[in-house]
Design goal:
Number of helices of chain A: 15
CATH class of the largest domain in chain A: Alpha Beta
Number of domains of chain A: 3
Number of strands of chain A: 15
CATH superfamily of the largest domain in chain A: Type I PLP-dependent aspartate aminotransferase-like (Major domain)
Helix content of chain A: 25-40%
Radius of gyration of chain A: 22 Å
Order of helices and strands of chain A: HHHHEEHEHHEHEHEEEHEEEHHHEEHEEH
Largest interface: A-B, 55 and 54 residues
Oligomer: homodimer
CATH topology of the largest domain in chain A: Aspartate Aminotransferase, domain 2
Chain lengths: 486, 486
């Protein structure tokens, strides 16, 4: 629990309408949004709310607007405001809200957030690379309070119970509650399948696809995905990425595309947040072509500028999105535990595949993570990690901003950003020069297959200390200027 | 630790020569066998040896023979014999033995043992069926001392360390030591890959096979294997089983057979122990045809009459056997942890597949089981479980033996045996009649694909209490007599 004993809502997804219709009356919209969260019990009694200042900043609205909304909710007895001590959800829900509970929850939605870090074949995910500038694009394991991951006695007492192939019920319930609040996804326990991580879900997709089906991948994109689908004999279609994300229009030019793998939150590796229009266009494509969207959501937990955009799954009216999340990125890579929100049409097939191949994740890890979530440790860890990574990113960005002409992008979220190279500088030469000075950089070109991008390199900062960042930034600047054509 | 604080060797595999050449001088053979185990450190100083009475019984030799061998080893200072307190491995190894350490260990070998229990599609493995007569063919979870499975603080401190894709080093080391002693397999840490269980290994095989390759399966056989290979689009060849096990001769009649899945220890579901001649013939086939043997060793831990035959892998001179074991059967099915001893030619491919598909088992379970093995809890658990299952089996067999004409087989090991039905009785009718009386029986026919066997049903007894066994046996006898043709 953060400060004191009350649970604190980590972050609240931005209401989708706020991003889609900026002209709408924000006060009404936010009021309805919070009231629904309270009515459905997604914000449990006693939960401490983020401050109005924090919410205003993350939602991109005036603080006065949030103040008004909080005042109204307090007047109605839904929340308790305490001078200097923040606001908490009222212990007893007013009758009006209990009645509202029968109504379906309106679409929840969020804003921009970070992207899945790429794990190219050249860098196995299990090599943490902690402290190696700048390949430190994985979570920093030293931030984890490991004692909270201890398997508790009550979980141990029933560890020989049979576990459903789709995963432990209470773990799935905790995951459903988490992604409802933070990713805007409305789903039931039955929609969730516990996996070993995102690649595990992708492997299922590769097994589910038929011989003639093609899978569309972002280019540049997540290298492991391309490797996996090709290794398992699937036809891979490369789709270009532009400043709004995956170029959905290109999908129409390919027959037989049955599924699309995408990283809308923070494109891997470019860090682009897919626009709302593209998200809708992708959903339309899926509905028209009987296709599926595999939404790879990793790193979405780390966003520094504002609350994240809702997942595409949150907008999915026709059950066309298979949403994949992972604890391997947010906790530690050796955990091997993730989850998927699976469309009804694929669910039985997915669970049957897990059973037949003996790949249901082990109950010990499931019970451990279940406790970690239920006791609020996970949200606390994410909050601390986000603050830490933001501080490290800012330290690095400040140093680079002091140099005229250095351009970065994709820095708003995730665990890395892109540093663009000056015209005429080759990625290979730049990386080699950096390597000689002790910096491990990955060129954008490493992630490109058919489509090319201007020269750039990935800068991972999450698992570096402040001292490492200061020293490495100095070297990076020197390498940058030394590589300029004379 | 069993009784006191000294480790006790659970069981010692029967020297292969003893089963192959019953005319050889047993005394010399056993002496050389034990001396080698001591020389290589497989029996660590201080380890308590089984009594001469126990070893004589399990090796099928006169007690006097074992006495002679022990006396000789004691004279040489290799073991310490204490009146009434058993024998222990001497704390300091004599020089002669240390010198012998440089020599390669001769082939270790064992005798008959139990077979993999079938987990047909009709009965998902995670449904434990504890206490339901007679489908209780899984380990009894109530025998597990769960407190020993607690993840210790020292394991927790390093849980965010990166873990090799092939599995935790110390866990693999513990597995290598275990199967060296109890399955006669001489292997290094590098030969071992940690998996989620036997089906996980089979899934790798299905991915490794080429389009034209066929996989040969025992018929009747392990239903999940057939299901898996067919689901993943592989060509399946059914090979008949006779009283000596898999009919190796039939393999020659099929082209393109690249791998054979077999359950030599206690054939699933018939309970037959594959003969030594057949084992050799299978190895010859693999060597001649550039094929691989997938040795599915589950349930080999439970053998009641004598020490188990060595694994085929123990005789494998040409690295043709992929040996699979599992902790899911011996501990509890939700654990999802097993291992494989992988031929050199397949190793890189196997590990690469685990990495690319994100299917390396989680580090929490690996560390937990590693401690369980290293602290001796696993051997203690197996010993207690074996004694318990034997008692339950004996209780059931005694009751059935009181009825004239009832025939069983495959009872020497494993967690189930076969009850053969009288001529003219249909399996379906018998099972239906039993079901009406509360007994769940599985007919042999359920496991047959192309080849037929006389009518019989599987009787699982491992996870039943004495009271359940007594009551269910009474009902079974009544159903048996009532089903006889009038």
């Amino acid at each position: 629990m953060a400060r004191g004993k009350q649970p604190l809502a980590l972050d609240l997804a931005l209401p989708f309408e706020l991003s889609a219709k900026p002209s709408a009356r924000k006060h009404q919209l936010l009021y309805a949004f919070l009231q629904e969260l309270l009515a459905c019990g997604h914000l449990a009694p006693g939960t401490r709310l983020p401050s109005t200042r924090t919410l205003a900043q993350r939602w991109g609205v005036a603080r006065g607007t949030v103040e008004l909304v909080f005042e109204q909710l307090a007047l109605e007895g839904c929340i308790l405001r305490r001078q200097g001590a923040g606001s908490v959800v009222a212990p007893l829900r007013p009758d009006a809200l209990i009645a509202a509970n029968d109504q379906p929850l309106a679409t929840l939605a969020c804003t921009r957030e970070p992207a899945p870090c790429v794990s190219p074949a050249a860098l196995p995910e299990t090599r943490l690379q902690t402290g190696v500038p700048f390949v430190a694009r994985l979570a920093d394991p030293t931030l984890l309070e490991q004692r909270h991951l201890q398997l508790a006695a009550d979980a141990l007492a029933t560890i020989t119970d049979s576990v459903p192939h789709a995963g432990d019920m209470l773990l799935r319930k905790a995951i459903a509650a988490h992604i409802r609040l933070y990713r805007g996804i409305e789903c039931d326990v039955e929609d969730i399948v516990v996996t070993q991580g995102i690649r595990h879900t992708l492997h299922f997709i590769s097994q589910w696809l038929q011989q003639d089906d093609a899978i569309a991948l972002e280019d540049p994109g997540y290298s492991w995905a391309a490797r996996m689908f090709e290794q398992t004999g699937r036809r891979v279609i490369c789709v270009a990425v532009d400043q709004a994300g995956l170029d959905v229009g290109q999908l129409a030019t390919h027959d037989n595309v049955r599924a699309v793998h995408t990283t809308p939150a923070h494109q891997a590796p470019l860090g682009i947040c897919m626009s709302v229009q593209r998200r809708q266009a992708l959903l339309d494509w899926a509905q028209t072509r009987d296709g599926y969207i595999v939404e790879d959501d990793y790193d979405s937990e780390y966003n520094y500028a504002c609350a994240p955009l809702p997942a595409i799954k949150a907008l999915d009216q026709h059950d066309r999105v298979l949403f994949c999340g992972s604890f391997n990125k947010t906790l530690f890579s050796g955990l091997r535990l993730g989850f998927a929100v699976v469309p009804r049409t694929l669910r039985a097939r997915f669970i049957d595949w897990l059973a037949a191949t003996g790949q249901t994740p082990g109950i010990i890890a499931q019970r451990t993570v279940r406790q970690y979530l239920l006791r609020g440790h996970y949200e606390r860890h994410l909050r601390i990690a986000r603050q830490t990574y933001q501080r490290r990113r800012d330290l690095l960005l400040e140093r680079l901003a002091a140099e005229p002409g250095m351009t970065v992008s994709g820095e708003q979220s995730g665990l890395h950003f892109v540093l663009w190279l000056p015209d005429g500088v080759s990625e290979q030469a730049f990386c080699e020069r950096a390597r000689q000075r002790g910096l491990v950089l990955q060129p954008i070109g490493l992630f490109c297959r058919q489509h090319t991008w201007p020269a750039g390199v990935l800068i991972g900062y999450a698992a570096l200390t402040d001292e490492q960042i200061a020293a490495a930034a100095q070297v990076l600047v020197e390498v940058y200027w030394a590589s300029l054509p004379r």
